[in-house]
Amino acid sequence: MKGEATKKFEELTKKLDRMKRRVNDLMTEIQNRCAENVEIEKIGAMVTEMDRIYSLAEDLQWSYEELLNEDNLATNVHEWNAFHYAVVDTRATFQVYKEKIIKSSKTETAERKAAFEEGKEPCNLRIPKWQLTPFDGDIMQFGAFWDQFQASVHSRTDLNDIEKFICLRSNLKGPALDVISGFSITATNYPEAVKTLRERFDRADLIIQHHIIQLAEIKKMTEPSPTGLRKLYDKLMLHFRALRAMGKDPINGQLTTAEIFLALTQKAMPSELNKKWEEFIESNTSTPANLESFLEFVRKQIDIEEKVTFTKGTKFTSVEKCPTTLHENRSKGRPGKYTTAALQIHTQERTRCLLCQKFHDISACTQFLGSDVDERWRIAKRLGLCYSCLKKGHRKKECRVSRKTATGETTIHDLLNRKDVGDKKTDENPVENITKVCLKMNVDKKDGSSSYSNGSLQIARAMICAENGMKRTVNCILDSGAQRSFVKREVVESLGLNGPKEHITISGFNQRNEHRKLMRVELRLKGVDSDNSCVINALCVPHLCGKAPLNPMMEEHEHLKGLKLADQFQRGEVEIDLLIGIDHYYDIVLNEIKRVDTSKPTAVKTIFGWVICGKNIPQHRTHLLHCKVNEECNCECNIIKKFWELEALGTELRNDFEVNDVLERFKNEVRFDGERYVVKLPWRSPEVQVLNNYEQAERRLQQLEKRLSNNSERAKEYDEEGIPGKTWYLPHHAVYRDDKTTTRCRIVFDASAKYQGTLLNDFLEPGPPLQNQILDILIRFRRFKIGIQADISKMFLQIRLDPEDKDVSRFLWRNMKEGKRPRIFRFNRVTYGLNCAPFLAMAVLRHHAESNQAEYGKAAENVKRNMYVDDIVLSCEKEEDAIR
To answer: Which residues form a coiled coil (predicted)?
Structure first.
């Protein structure tokens, strides 16, 4: 055993020395490169590698210290601290260098841009006289813009790459500027920025398709005239010349018939299919993007959907008539995990109703639904319908979509069921097993059509411009129902923003109130496609809300056409980054509104552009309704279930000891007065005003005395249990335990007693859970044969309360003498009735252990790992270890 320990110690020493040498080499290289003004990205990568190796070395150091004796430990800790401070100094050197580079780049960019806009020539910048038209992200205009920029700037040899980059940025705006906004202005970044810009907007295939579709959509002239013919000719030649410039001259046969039909075919296909085609071409670069490949791709997609559909016995007609895709269903509902039955894609023919001859299913026919059950039976018999699915062409026993009863019989359709439809009984059995099934649901309207109506939220895209020069495009939701504005913490951290903290109370549904301390940041918002901007203050939170659906359906509304929207709605759903409340709502929203009636969406003008909100036009759809069927497990299943629930104990990851504001405040305020630890109560807000509830405490005291007056023995015990110590009032009552031989009477102080709608515990933070898992403690306890157990006597009363908080822990006492005025006392120690008492006790215990870690390492570690409330249990292999 001793030889193995020595070997382990030597291996640990070698590993630690190797890692220290690697970190020292990296620190030297970082210091040298910062002095030589090397590119910041390369130095940043070296700092990241240094931190990674240092973290591994730090873990080894902890293990190494446990193997050292007391004589060598102090020397080793001193050496490690010197090494640690060297790493900290290197990080600080890099941070100073980074801030210097950012500041220098920012100043140089501003000076060059200002000089360029004023027509001056800073340094040796020689720009042609003519003015370029800024490019805003329109793919159709990129070719002309790039040709001009290439001739005037890009191809010139007397300009360096930094000067070209400055000219490029100054001639971009909107989405085009966003594409390269992440590149800092350096010579090496200029070619990358040009490459990124051309990959995004130099799309010859899309431009060719656009011209073909525009030619196909030219309307026939009804009244020929010279002026009209001239306009028509000019429009045709505009597209022909553009195609000729791209090497696709339709006059000389360079534009093939296959290319024309490819554009027209893609226009006729659903957008979801076109998206899949684009993804397919991107991932299969060897496949040509021609008509033959596209038709083959469409055929395979149809085969896939037919196979999926026929597994449910549903007739497939065409991809175009598929009323609801899986993507649409998931974007309109709450995201979740679906079974195979819920993933089937349902398609429906556009057939005429056999009863009224309108285009809908008979199950949605108002004439059929308006009849009673007997009349529906007569209609079904007359029309020769299946009694199970109400379709024509087969009998009930031959129906492929029918359901079977427990006895094997085919069920009839719900509309033909003579039982009371409204009799909906709920299963009162506990849910032991949940199965999800997929049902078709039609929403009935007055005209008998199946429809669905959805609402659009006020969503816009904007750009946050930070003072440090960083920018980020975010998705905003305008919410006039929120009093304050909120921003996601991830956005704030990515921009390097900071600000003061403030205490707030967040109120939500079901009267839920949450007291939080949040950071407030100042944001400058700017439109993505406009120069309008404003400054708002927002509170930083980890999460805002779930994903919001985007479905404006612009093509359905004439009054919305031609508007410059604040969002182009290129995504099925969007993650909200910024919520703008009523505090800044009218800084964003302008006075102009476009509205037809309440059944159609409304357009509201904002500084970012127009936003669409309100109702969307109904569409003919079939919806998938996910229902839960409750099944009760048998006894054997319950036994197995309980077994695995027990086995799962202790396997879940916990993050109980995560540092938060309450714990940080405790660490800053706790102190040792030479005898005991002194703590302050963790108030939710420093400005809290506690009411004087003397009347309530006196009334509760009288009720308690009246109850005890009938039992003189218990009254005596209550009087003797009183806690001495003179000086909100805490109402109290006595709890008796006849099974106890000592301390049968305990006095319980009630900090949850309401007075005028408030209670003391509402003003106090309960603190994070610091308790260890009892299962982990018991498993460790059973490792060795010698057990050790101890507990802390009156744990809460060992902690002294700060004098500032004693007045909120007063109570009344008068030794069962009802004629005498109650005396006022106040606690000097932490009271058990406070909701923060368990947190304060555990926090003091852990603080005490950590403070004495260096002197009593093993004991302190046992206290932190093996304490459960006021009890500690551990085990040892030998008696000598237990005694020590």
So the answer is: 2-29, 687-721
**Domain closes at, from 615, 649, 669:** 615
Together in a domain, 168 and 135: yes
Residue with tokens 């009334």: 699
pLDDT tens figures, 330-386: 333 444 433 333 333 333 445 678 888 777 788 878 788 778 888 888 888 888 888
Band of the pLDDT at 579, cuts 50, 70, 90? very high
CATH number at residue 6: 1.20.58
CB 798 within 8 A of CB 829: yes
The torsion angles phi and psi of 873, rounded to 5 degrees, stand at -135, 135
Element at 573 (helix H, strand E) = strand 573-574
SS3 content of the chain, % helix, strand, coil (to 5): 45, 15, 40
Comparing C-alpha atoms, which of 28, 80, 23 is closest to residue 48? 23
More confident site: 822 or 451? 822
- Determine the Cα–Cα distance for residues 312 and 307; give it in Å rounded to an integer: 9
Q: What percent of the chain lies above the pLDDT cut of 70?
A: 68
Angstrom distance (rounded) from CA 157 to CA 151:
11
Residues 85, 143 within the same domain:
no
Helix (H) or strand (E) holding 871: strand 871-876
Give SS3 for 143: helix
β-sheet bridge partners, residue 503: 517
- Residue 652's CB is within 10 A of a number of other CB atoms, namely 7
In tens, the pLDDT along 718-762 reads 444 444 333 356 665 566 566 655 555 666 666 666 665 667 777
Predicted pLDDT of residue 247: 76
- Only one residue has tokens 């309109």, namely 332
Instruction: Please report, to the nearest 10 degrees, the dihedral formed by the alpha carbons of residues 769, 770, 771, 772 taken in order.
Output: 120
CATH number of the domain residue 597 falls in: 2.40.70.10
Number of domains in the chain: 4
Residue 421 pLDDT greater than 70, yes or no? no
Which residues sit opposite 522 in a β-bridge?
537
* Residue after which a domain boundary falls, among 81, 106, 131: 106
β pairing state of 623-631 and 459-465 = unpaired
102 Cα distance to chain centroid: 31
Q: How many CB atoms lie within 10 A of CB 709?
A: 12
- Domain assignment present for residue 354? The answer is no
Retrieve residue 578's tokens.
């910024």
| Token pair in block for residue 758 | 């408030």
Same domain? 584 vs 684: no
Residues 599 and 670 in one domain: no
Q: Other CB atoms closer than 10 Å to residue 460's CB: what's the count? A: 26
Task: Show the tokens assigned to 11.
Answer: 């291996």
| Structure tokens belonging to residue 847 | 């603080």
Domain for residue 391, yes or no?
A: no
322 or 235: whose pLDDT is higher?
Answer: 235
Same domain, 710 and 827: yes
Q: Which domain holds residue 74?
A: 2-106
Report if residue 726 sits inside a domain.
yes
Q: Are residues 127 and 51 in the same domain?
A: no
| DSSP per residue, 158-207 | SS-HHHHHHHHHHTB-THHHHHHTTS-S-TTHHHHHHHHHHHHH--HHHH
The answer to whether position 47 is within a domain reads yes
> Are both 775 and 822 inside the same structural domain?
yes
Tokens of 114: 């200002």
**In 246-365, alpha helices (H):** 257-268, 271-283, 291-310, 326-332
Same domain, residue pair 724 and 866:
yes
399 token code pair: 């129906």
CB–CB of 553/530 below 8 Å? no
Residue written as tokens 């799309």?
Answer: 203
